[in-house]
Amino acid sequence: MTSPTDQPSRLKLWETSLFSALAFLYLALLSLGNIPAEALVKSAPILALLYFSRRYFQGRQGQLISLALLFSASGDVLLTLSNSWSFPAGLASFLVAQLIYASLFLRGHIQRHELSSRHVITAALLLCHALFFANLLLPVAGELAIAILAYLCAISLMGFAAVFYAHSIRVLVGAISFIASDTLIAVNKFLIPFDQADHAIMASYYLAQLLIFQGLLASVKTK
Fold first, then answer.
1. Angle 86-107/169-186 helices, nearest 10 degrees?
2. If you compute the radius of gyration of the chain from its CA atoms, what whole number of angstroms results?
3. Burial tier of 193 (Cβ tally within 10 Å: 0-12, 13-18, 19+)
4. C-alpha dihedral over 39, 43, 45, 49, to 10 degrees?
5. Around 46, how many Cα atoms within 13 Å sit in the side-chain half-sphere?
6. Is 7 strand, coil or helix?
7. What is the largest CA-CA distance in the chain?
8. Cα-flanking dihedrals φ and ψ of residue 7, to 5°?
9. Distance from C-alpha of 18 to C-alpha of 180, rounded to nearest angstrom
10. In a domain, 127, yes or no
């Protein structure tokens, strides 16, 4: 049991600054079109979080967070490739990351007496979002329809789990930002391509990963 003086852990200023600098570097380089060592530059912010996680998280929680970040970074790398299999492979990698995040959030769920209308309404809105985009995407996804459906289920589960996470609202905001990022990917790839899509997708994705990391960190107490 933690003492009354225990406080939630937080990223140090230099750690947040390094993550932000790496994220802004990739966003700035996106305008060039052809980024040198793109896979490394794109995944660098997530690899930084993976490194930081070793400082803050222990035991099973630490292992799960490391795995979620590792699969996320792998997905980033796969999605930079131009092979026909790279998109479904990247999708599969992120699917695993979403399931791991969902399990982490459920480990820190609220108690039944803490359940409120806010939780129910937010979960209902996420369900409506999932059903709406499933209806839009599946008819036009072709041979990727099953993969898209599986990923939609996984990220929706992650979102639902975040709704009921007890330690920090940042987890929910991060989950929503993650869902927004993937929604933008789906819209741009399958529905209506739009200008600056990559910037919007990656900015919301990096924000999501940072907020989720910070939210999970709130469950770790330091004296």
1. 160
2. 18
3. exposed
4. -150
5. 26
6. strand
7. 56
8. -125, 150
9. 24
10. yes
**Which residue type sits at 113?**
H
Q: What is the pLDDT of residues 125-169, one digit of tens each?
A: 999 999 999 999 999 999 999 999 999 999 999 999 999 998 899
* 118 vs 62: CA distance, rounded Å: 29
- The full length of the chain comes to 223
* Residue-level pLDDT at 6: 56
Report if residue 174 sits inside a domain.
yes
Global confidence as pTM: 0.93
**pLDDT tens figures, 65-111:** 999 999 999 999 999 998 889 999 999 999 999 999 999 999 988 88
Token output for 152: 């939609």
Q: Among positive and negative, which fits the CA dihedral 175, 180, 183, 184?
A: negative
Q: Where are the beta strands (DSSP E) in 52-129?
A: none
Ramachandran category for residue 52: left, alpha or beta (phi over 0 → left; psi -120 to 50 → alpha)? alpha
Does the structure show a pLDDT above 70 at 16?
yes
The tokens of 182 are what? 């993937």
Whether 46 and 69 have beta carbons less than 8 Å apart is answered as yes
Tokens representing 114?
């803490």
Q: How many domains does the chain have?
A: 1
Pull the structure tokens for residue 52: 């930081």
Would you give the DSSP letter of residue 221?
E
Q: What are phi and psi of 165, to 5 degrees?
A: -75, 135
In-domain check, residue 1: no
Domain holding 92, by residue range, is: 7-222
What is the average per-residue pLDDT within 6-23? 88
Within a domain: 55 = yes
